[in-house]
Amino acid sequence: MHSKHLIYFCLCALLFSACDNNDDSLPDPEGPVTFENGIFVLNEGNFQQGNSSVTYVDPAAGVVSHNIFEGVNKVPMGDTATDLAFFEDHGFIVLNVSNTIEIVDPVTFESIATIDSDLHNPRKIAFSERMLYVTNWGEGSDTTDDYVAVFDTQNFELLTKIPVAEGPEDILSFNGNIFVAHGGGWNFNNKISVITGTEVNKVIEVGEVPNGIAAADGSLWVSSAGLPDYAGETAGSISKIDLGSLTVEKTFSFPDAGQHPANMSHYNGDIYFTLRDEVFSFSTSASELPTISAFPIEEVAYLYGFNIHEGKAYAASASPDFTGNGKLFIYDLAGGNLVGQYDTGINPNGIFFND
């Protein structure tokens, strides 16, 4: 599921009772036999409904293929997809409630293997050399059992489990280190763990509820949402961490307690993030946060996933009640103009590219 705490607590029961596994389902793939040079939209589906899926979009060819994993392999993908990544000659799909990682051919999406052990509430993944790193919450009510599982990418066997602070979520591999943002899981946290190999060598404190990490221009950038209104609302922030000393160099604090940045990414020397239904950007050399948005994304009913890629912004919108199919909106980054929109599966939470 998304790391948005309010959704996690309040919607699980709603989605479980309101959604049938077959409702609003999309047809099996009709289109390309292979999936290349396009957009992969990860659809979370509904909690405990086993209806996660991947939608493939090729705007140049005018092709949209829904539910491609099940269409190719003739079995459901799993329950509550939280991440998708491509590494070397494999695609990896994390299924949170299923406690599995599906491994597929990145072009045909044919199943290669399934990791179905040593995972407990898996969230996000990253790679370094021959190692796959997976953040795990463990039991949501236990603040001490969180860990990063490390698997061999060749045989998919467990190498080790690294105990970490509560609520490991986003994870980034950069320059020999693995950076883990601890949003807090079912609670709240404010830490970045730095892992080298299989050991945590440093823990850095940042703003409350870190929800995004990016490496750009010699610095690690961390967006923190701040506490939500039901937990004593605080404003979000963006931290700039020196990658040499691994210390916080500067903290950009938002002025309003109601401002909670999300969906941080970087592109061409700029940092991008979203606030509500607007996209903001600022240079990595800037001394303050922007006060005017780059462009609005008003078409989005509920922003659930976001990415920047090759001059375009991709915004994934969940349906207003989180039980129906969503949409993908594509914007020209330079002018903020809407240049395309496509149907997706239920609760699209990520947009990915196999570059």
From TrEMBL:
Pfam families: DUF5074. It comes from the Bacteria. InterPro entries: DUF5074, Host-pathogen_enzymatic-act, Quino_amine_DH_bsu, WD40/YVTN_repeat-like_dom_sf. This is 40-residue YVTN family beta-propeller repeat-containing protein.
